């Protein structure tokens, strides 16, 4: 009897272990829908490239804004029928705005939050306008770490502090990560991130942490984390320092192209009917007789750049959303001058290094730097991005990364890279500082404590401020903001009728699910419908462009790469047939400039080199060298005179200073750049910025000696 009992227990334990082990194996290796690997929702076209709907022109968008304030311009059909040759931009008639002309929401700020709110509101059938003083993603939204993540380090904090709210934030971010990757597969992708281990006891600790991260993601997970032995870790990441390395853990998160994502959000909102205008500055807020906000005064900064008078005009709206990130206090003070500031600005510096500093498909995280912070080391757009720092700062439009912060990042990199890799200041191709808008809740008992995630606040006069948060959760922030706006301003969402054919194909009804509720978790962004991992092959075969250019275009524009390639000039070579490169070092081509102007509201050279392409963020000196071509193409597209072209040159150099351009090149003339004879100021500057050791070596002979040419 006892023997039978022992046998029964052994079988039971063995069966239980087998079931548990099988469950773990199934969970680890179960079939998954990896974002970006699905076939395109719209198959590739036949012989002719696809045709896509276009957004309204910037002039048409501004005319719509003016109409809300009772001003009719020559772009109005009614005025065109009366006047034959009106002067462009002149006001023709003023009248009382009709209810249909007044916006439900006016959103101030064209970053990730503002563009996300615009798309959410537009897809709920609301009449929406969004205005931006500079350009979409011109501030914090373009200067992120480029990750789409739940925050593995926040999960560790939640565990040790037994903080359920922190746990919920990670859980929500992991869900939003999945939505992000699904709605913009061309602009985002999953990325394995390595966590090197230098002590054996760390292996089970971090293994448990990464597995908890996997489990928390649940069905929204990407791939399961795994352990690498020392040899496998070095094979995957050859640049790692071998000393003390005992192995590594690899977990998965997402990566994205932040500025391209931001522009795509704004353009998708425009296709769904939102009025979207950049380079339009809010100069004041209007209130009605009851002291409630009813609109804003704005002026067109592009007209000022063109040497014309930029007169103020009024935009009327039932509700105003302040989504200006670190600048939100300036808008709040327009509403109430004596109000207490809520932004606690923090500077985050990133540097960009050549691609040979990291594998092309593996990132790295150092969870414990010398001062206890976390640093990421990630492949991005063919280069390597490293950061970030975290220090209090002042609010400014284009902050400059300090040398002490750059040196700190380089010092941390040296700690985990092999000693034979000379980590040099000259390898820093670009460096920038982004201002993270940490916020304090003005209604909290302790008004100095920072909110954990994001803040939605409504002033007595009805200004709705949405601030804080991070890129990964932009969609959730927007949803909560629009929900609050609907309640506060008594708005009436409706089913979207006559939804645009964003995909360019009648095979997909983009308005099928738009019933007035929030549907942005499944609204594909512009470019997503026809994207697949093999789309670049179709592009090569049709237009005859280089492989790296085709991959870049499909990864930056999705199915709109067809349009970009079609706007590129013939090369008059056997191959590539199309696509004049802006820089020999990168796959950006001339067609992107034309596309940016015609389809994405690019109005300045900086709009193109920094946010439509990412050249300035990848290599400040390469961006300077590409500037003559960018200015020439934009001048042709936008009819710039010589004075405007000179202004663009000057403004671009000022911006490139914030990207780490050497000081000696900040006064570079176009002639000097085109000649290719830009020299460093002195030997110290050469030592700091040069990417090689000797300025010019004579031709070497086989015996090791050199000879003059």
Automatic annotation (TrEMBL):
InterPro entries: DAO_C, DAO_C_sf, FAD-dep_OxRdtase, FAD/NAD-bd_sf, G3P_DH_FAD-dep. It is found in: Mitochondrion. Keywords: Calcium, FAD, Flavoprotein, Membrane, Metal-binding, Mitochondrion, Oxidoreductase, Repeat, Transit peptide, Transmembrane, Transmembrane helix. The chain crosses the membrane at residues 12-29. Residues 689-709 are annotated as: Disordered. Pfam families: DAO, DAO_C. GO terms for biological process: glycerol-3-phosphate metabolic process. SUPFAM superfamilies: FAD-linked reductases, C-terminal domain (SSF54373), FAD/NAD(P)-binding domain (SSF51905). Its EC number is 1.1.5.3. Residues 518-645 form the Alpha-glycerophosphate oxidase C-terminal domain. It catalyses: a quinone + sn-glycerol 3-phosphate = dihydroxyacetone phosphate + a quinol. Its cofactor is FAD. GO terms for molecular function: glycerol-3-phosphate dehydrogenase (quinone) activity; metal ion binding. Residues 104-475 form the FAD dependent oxidoreductase domain. One of its GO terms (cellular component) is mitochondrion. Belongs to the FAD-dependent glycerol-3-phosphate dehydrogenase family. PANTHER family: GLYCEROL-3-PHOSPHATE DEHYDROGENASE (PTHR11985), GLYCEROL-3-PHOSPHATE DEHYDROGENASE, MITOCHONDRIAL (PTHR11985:SF15). This is Glycerol-3-phosphate dehydrogenase. It comes from Pseudogymnoascus destructans (strain ATCC MYA-4855 / 20631-21) (Bat white-nose syndrome fungus).
């Amino acid at each position: 009897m006892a023997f039978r009992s022992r046998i029964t227990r052994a079988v039971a334990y063995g069966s239980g272990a087998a079931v548990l082990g099988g469950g773990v194996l199934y969970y680890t290796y179960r079939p998954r829908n990896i974002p970006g690997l699905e076939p395109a929702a719209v198959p590739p076209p036949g012989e002719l490239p696809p045709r896509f709907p276009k957004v309204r022109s910037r002039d048409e968008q501004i005319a719509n804004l003016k109409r809300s304030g009772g001003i009719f311009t020559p772009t109005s059909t009614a005025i065109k029928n009366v006047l034959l040759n009106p002067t462009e931009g002149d006001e023709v008639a003023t009248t009382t705005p009709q209810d249909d002309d007044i916006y439900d929401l006016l959103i101030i700020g064209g970053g990730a939050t503002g563009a996300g709110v615009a798309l959410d509101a537009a897809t709920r059938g609301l009449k929406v306008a969004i205005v931006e003083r500079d350009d979409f993603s011109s501030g914090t939204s373009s200067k992120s770490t480029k990750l789409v993540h739940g925050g593995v380090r926040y999960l560790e904090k939640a565990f040790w502090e037994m903080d359920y709210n922190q746990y919920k934030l990670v859980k929500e971010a992991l869900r939003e990560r999945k939505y992000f990757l699904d709605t913009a597969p061309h602009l985002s992708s999953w990325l394995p991130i390595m966590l090197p281990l230098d002590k054996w006891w760390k292996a089970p600790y971090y293994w448990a942490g990464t597995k908890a991260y996997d489990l928390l993601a649940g069905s929204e997970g990407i791939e399961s984390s795994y352990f690498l032995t020392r040899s496998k870790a070095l094979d995957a990441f050859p640049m790692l320092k071998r000393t003390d390395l005992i192995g590594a853990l690899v977990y998965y998160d997402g990566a994205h192209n932040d500025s391209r994502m931001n522009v795509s959000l704004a353009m998708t909102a425009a296709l769904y009917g939102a009025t979207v205008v950049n380079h339009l500055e809010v100069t004041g807020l209007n209130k009605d007789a009851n002291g409630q906000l009813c609109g804003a005064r704005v002026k067109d900064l592009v007209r000022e750049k063109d040497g014309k008078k930029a007169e103020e005009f009024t935009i009327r709206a039932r509700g105003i959303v302040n989504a200006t990130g670190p600048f939100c206090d300036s808008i709040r003070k327009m509403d109430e001058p004596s109000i207490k500031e809520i932004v606690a600005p923090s500077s985050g510096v990133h540097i960009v290094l050549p691609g040979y500093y990291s594998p092309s498909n593996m990132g790295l995280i150092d969870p414990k730097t010398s001062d206890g912070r976390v640093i990421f080391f990630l492949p991005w757009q063919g280069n390597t991005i490293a950061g970030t720092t975290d220090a209090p700062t002042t609010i400014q439009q284009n902050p400059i990364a300090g040398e002490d912060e750059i040196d700190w990042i380089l010092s941390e990199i040296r700690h985990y890279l092999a000693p034979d890799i000379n980590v040099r200041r000259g390898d820093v191709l670009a460096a920038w500082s982004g201002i993270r808008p940490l916020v304090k809740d003005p209604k909290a008992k302790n008004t100095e404590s920072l909110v954990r995630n994001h803040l939605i606040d409504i002033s007595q006069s009805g200004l709705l401020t949405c601030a804080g948060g991070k890129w990964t959760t932009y969609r959730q922030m927007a949803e909560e903001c629009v929900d609050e706006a609907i309640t506060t301003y008594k708005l009436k969402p409706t089913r979207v009728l006559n939804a645009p054919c964003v995909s360019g194909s009648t095979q997909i009804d983009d308005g099928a699910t738009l019933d007035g509720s929030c549907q942005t978790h499944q609204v594909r962004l512009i470019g997503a419908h026809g994207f697949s991992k093999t789309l670049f092959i179709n592009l090569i075969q049709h237009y005859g462009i280089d492989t790296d250019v085709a991959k870049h275009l499909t990864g930056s524009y999705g199915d709109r790469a067809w349009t970009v390639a079609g706007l590129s000039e013939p090369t008059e070579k056997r191959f590539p047939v199309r696509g004049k490169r802006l820089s020999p070092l990168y796959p950006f081509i001339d067609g992107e400039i034309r596309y940016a102007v015609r389809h994405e509201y690019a109005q300045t050279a900086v709009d193109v080199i920094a946010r439509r392409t990412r050249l300035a963020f990848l290599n400040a000196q390469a961006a300077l060298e590409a500037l003559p071509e960018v200015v020439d193409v934009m001048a042709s597209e936008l009819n710039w005179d010589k004075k405007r072209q000179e202004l663009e040159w000057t403004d671009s150099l000022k911006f490139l200073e914030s990207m780490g351009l050497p000081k000696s090149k900040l006064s570079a003339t176009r002639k000097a750049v085109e000649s290719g004879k830009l020299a460093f100021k002195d030997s110290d500057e050469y030592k700091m910025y040069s990417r090689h050791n000797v300025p010019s070596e004579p031709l070497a002979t086989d015996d090791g000696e050199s000879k003059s040419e």
